[in-house]
Design a protein that fits this description.
Bound molecules: 1,4-dihydronicotinamide adenine dinucleotide
Number of helices: 12
Length: about 350
């Protein structure tokens, strides 16, 4: 306001200029698994992000079509499709962020852990290439089981000598997205104003929404309603898997969540202050080596892993009961990566 009074540009104008596409730094984002159910809408959403200058779409099949299609959209980024392992290096080279939704999704009756055998191998080979071609990129791991694929990625990077714990993220944003929607519905508050941290991991009971910290506060939710909201958040993925009846798991809401998380990473890289999202990262806020919690993002990735804050008794119980399962999933990932 002071500036405007003096006849200069308003501060909001300055802010807009500072982050407009013309002055935003060059950023390359690669999506691995870009022709899949998540990959395609995620490619679309990343093409719409003005912070992206280059978008590399990689898959084992189908990427030329997705890339040609998305490339016609009138936004800043240049789009290129890469298909097959021969082109993986080119897709990755120079990437600031690599988003990985490659792998098989769940069918009804499957847990995320049932995907382990196939997806662990895919993640391992993709991460080996990341270590070689873009060791400094931030990795956004979407492929399930995230509780194990993130530890696998860490082991691969450690072996390659490129591991930087600030740069590896398990994408748990969809749990937050769901918790917000379900809470807004019950608390009768506008979803756009809602914030709910979700901590722990990304499977069943390891997903722990902290509704006691939800804002705007709601004083009229009973303990039973909080329990039901918690359960619905934990089972949100299964709700979609069952509704899709064999045709896969969440893709559209996952693409939305993945785009939000990648955007937060881009903002952090670009020096925007106070960017905070929940993510499954290397952590020492509990005794487990990886844990999802609020994370502050900065120019080098994780700037700070934020603590859990005050928990209700129900949440404290949830935290204790999730630890054995999360620990086992982490160990399973580490074991896989070190054996093969
Ligand atoms: P999808 O089967 O529709 O697509 C997966 C894509 O990965 C396919 O296009 C396939 O060709 C590709 N792919 C397979 N092997 C590859 C390799 N070696 N390199 C590159 N691409 C490869 O599956 P969808 O629905 O897109 O799900 C992908 C993954 O995301 C699954 O593991 C799923 O469980 C996970 N997921 C994670 C969520 C989260 O919250 N973190 C939520 C929903 C799904």
């Amino acid at each position: 306001a002071a500036l405007r009074r003096g006849g200069g540009p308003s501060s909001s104008h300055l802010l807009r200029r500072c982050y407009s596409s013309e002055s935003a730094p060059e950023r390359k984002v690669a999506v691995l698994g870009a022709a899949g159910g998540i990959g395609q809408p995620l490619a679309l959403l990343m093409k719409l992000n003005p912070l992206v200058s280059k978008l590399a779409l990689y898959d084992i099949a189908g990427t030329p079509g997705v890339a040609a299609d998305v490339s016609h959209i009138n936004t800043r980024s240049e789009v290129a499709g890469y298909m097959g392992e021969d082109q993986l290096g080119q897709a990755l080279e120079g990437s600031d962020i690599v988003i990985i939704p490659a792998g098989v999704p769940r069918k009804p009756g499957m847990t995320r852990d049932d995907l382990f055998n196939i997806n662990a191998g895919i993640v391992k080979s993709l991460c080996t290439a990341i270590a070689k071609y873009c060791p400094n990129a931030l990795v956004n791991m979407i492929s399930n089981p995230v509780n194990s694929t993130v530890p696998i990625a860490a082991e691969v990077f450690k072996k390659a000598g490129t591991y930087d714990e600030r740069k590896l993220f398990g994408v748990t944003t969809l749990d937050v997205v769901r918790a917000k929607t379900f809470y807004a519905g019950k608390a009768k508050v506008p979803v756009a104003e809602v914030n709910v941290p979700v901590v722990g991991g990304h499977a069943g009971i390891t997903i722990l929404p902290l509704f006691s910290q939800a804002t705007p506060k709601s004083n009229n939710l009973s303990d039973d309603e909080i329990k039901a909201l918690t359960k619905r958040t934990q089972d949100g993925g299964t709700e979609v898997v069952e509704a899709k009846a064999g045709k896969g798991s969440a893709t559209l809401s996952m693409a939305y969540a993945g785009a939000i998380f990648a955007d937060a990473c881009l903002k952090g890289l670009n020096g925007v202050p106070d960017v905070v999202e929940c993510s499954f990262v290397q952590s020492n806020i509990t005794e487990l080596p990886f844990f999802a919690s609020k994370v502050k993002l900065g120019k080098k990735g994780v700037e700070e892993v934020l603590g859990l804050g005050p928990l209700s008794d129900y949440e404290k119980q949830g935290l204790e009961s999730l630890k054995p399962e999360l620990k086992a999933s982490i160990e399973k990932g580490i074991k896989f990566a070190s054996e093969k």
